[in-house]
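An instance as discussed:

___
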Amino acid sequence: MIVCNKCKTVLYLGFELKSPKDILKATEGRCRGCGSILNYNNVKLEVTKA
């Protein structure tokens, strides 16, 4: 799961691992929830066992 650290909007949730770089590209570098500009410092990557 990849979330915005500012508003906690889930940017990606799935079984396939995706890099933060791919998520930033897919979202055009902006959070869908709060509109903040995303970078590697304000996204959180969490990997858990299904």
